[in-house]
Amino acid sequence: MDSHLKCPVCGCEHVYPDGALWMCPECAHEWNPAETAAENGEAAVEIRDANGNVLADGDTVTVIKDLKIKGSSMVVKGGTKVKNIRLSDGGDGHDIACKIPGIGAMNLKSGFVRKA
């Protein structure tokens, strides 16, 4: 996200991410920068798939290549359909939270999926 974020309540520059929310250590305010931007009339960040299609919560996507799961011997095979995705800011570019059949809950990068 932005490294120049400030707390919208007290203006503190020492904010830190906590999942999808940002926290202020001085006033303990929690907020989502995407929602704050939408309230201020700014454009929210669009998450796009490998083909450039805009993704939204609840979409169905298809994995475009085999993905090894870190710390496991399991692999998400290319062509696997993932239903009901949720867009999030999971960090490290993992911006899709989903549940993959036979594997379970995990985060994916939008560059490795295409909209079904």
TrEMBL record:
Pfam families registered for this protein in UniProt: YjdM, Zn_Ribbon_YjdM
Coiled-coil positions: none
Cross-referenced InterPro entries: YjdM, YjdM_C, YjdM_N
Stretches assigned to the Protein YjdM N-terminal domain: 6-32
Domain of life (superkingdom): Bacteria
Residues annotated as domain Protein YjdM C-terminal: 47-116
Family to which the UniProt record says this protein belongs: Belongs to the YjdM family.
PANTHER family: PROTEIN YJDM, PROTEIN YJDM-RELATED
Protein name: Alkylphosphonate utilization protein
Native source species: Gluconobacter aidae
